[in-house]
Each structure stands twice: as structure tokens, then as C-alpha cells.
Amino acid sequence: MNIEQLNNDYGIADQVKFIEGAGGFPFIKIDNAKAGAVISVYGGQVLSFQPANEPHNLMFLSESAYYQPGKSIKGGTPICWPWFGPDPEQLGRPSHGFVRTLFWNVAGTETTADGDSKVTLGLTDTAETRAIWPHGFSLSLAITVGDSLNLELITRNTTSQTFHITQALHTYFRVGHIDQVAISGLDGTEYIDKADNALLKLQTGTITIGTEVDRIYRDVDRELLIDDAMFGRRIRIKSTGSKTAVVWNPWAKISTGMGDLKDDDYERFVCVETANAGSDIVKVGPNAECRLGANYHIERTLPELSNDFPTAA
After folding, report:
1. Which of 121, 202, 224, 308 is most buried (most C-beta within 10 Å)?
2. CA atoms 291, 41, 266, 237: torsion sign
3. What sections of the protein cross the membrane (predicted)?
């Protein structure tokens, strides 16, 4: 992709700029009166989001992340599609689908009436994707950067045959320290504990993390809150088109074994994912569409103490 041409076609003066990012990937740098953000066109992935008056980035982005074709970027908002987790047909295809390792197309940029910046990215099926997943589709991701960060993933079936998908916005939230994190909104909710032989369990109270956590919460219909005590903030998550929430932290052993994480990175993030996963399978009929959305908003609980500016670019 030609950076100069992208700026000519889609740049917005003093607000939306295309730059060459890590690994030579095209990045979209947003800087408006409300917030700053960085989006990778590779993977269709928000790497950084920081409201103007917020001292810390919302997103965790690994300093050891890969910026290589065929590898996913560790951090931000990876898109899992058209399946979440292992290959559902056990054909040796990559976990979490294939769109997080493709270059997306830039479909449009705009400034909304209330001063937010909106970027729309898209993908359509190709011979390459059909060799992996034999269906025709049009995928659109609308990213709106303002006081909050809003994501909407729209799947369109462009064929005359029904297909089924699972999917997730696999968002990595940066936290001050995992020992001081509590997640609320899931009390009384059943979950599949993938870290304990996929046993079905019931959540009691808030979620705190002191070991590996890999859970699929079922029939979720409430807002979720991440209480990040060290950073003096709460992260409010509002989801649409989803009945599933996934909570994940790899803890020490898995983090140490990942080449794109530092050994102690598990202390600095938690994934709370808006998803259709497990038994929450979405049926998309011929020429029909489905929408999966998430809105992330930061609420401060302590005064600002320091500045922590995005480093993804």
C-alpha cells in the first residue's frame, strides 16, 4: 500500500494521517480534540487509544509483538473471524481464523458531526480466503475514535448459501498491575473454564486474577467493568450483537513461552472480549448480515498522576 496515495485519498488534515509503522505496515494515526489512536491496516487492528485527558493508554501492545506477514500482532484489538479458538473442523487451519493476518482495505474516513474520527476498513473473499474457508463474504470494520472507542464488525454473506461463524473482538486492555484488577458484571453467570478441562462453572462475585484464566462466559447481557486500581480508572465495556464474554490472562508459564510477550507481560494486561463463541454460533443467511459491536469508555477514579503516550507508531 502506498502511504502517499492513502493520505491523498483518505487523510484528513490535522486529524487522520497514514504513516509507515512497525515492520513497514501502513498505520493510521488519529489525533483529534478528544483522543489519539493508532490503527494497523494489517489485521484491521487498533493498537493504541488514549483520550486527551487520560494519562494512560487503554490498549496493551507488547514490545515484543511481531510485525510480519502471516503473524498476528500481540495487543490492541485483534479480530477473530470466522471462528474463535481452534479450527472448528480440525483441518489444521490457524486458531482464531485468518483476518487478523491479512491487510484490510481502507473503505473510508470521516469526521462525525460531534468531532469524532471514523475509519472504515473492509475485506472481501478472494481465492486465498476461499482456499481456507469456502464462502463468499464482505467484512466491514467501523472504528470511531472520540471520548470513547467504538468498534463495529459487520459480516455480510454475499452468496446464496447460509454459513455459520463464531467471532471475537479479542481486546487487550492495559492495566497497572494484574494483582489490582477486578472485573464486574458477570456475577451469577455460567462459564466454561478452558484452563480447567473445559468444566462448566458459576461465577461468584467479581473476577480477580491470580493464575491462568481462560473463560468463556455464556448468556452475557450486561455491561462489564474493569476496575484498574493502580491506574485509578474503570474501563466500561458495552457490547452489542453478542451473548458471550471471554476473559483471558495467560499468567507466568504461558507468557514466558510466547515469543511475542515478555516474561512478565501478563502482569500488564487482561483480555475481556466481546464475542460469539462456544455455543453462541451465528447463522448468516444468504445476502444477510450480522453485527458485533463494542464500546470502551474510561472513567477515572483517581486524579491524573502521570502521562503515558501511545508508542505504537
Report:
1. 121
2. negative
3. none
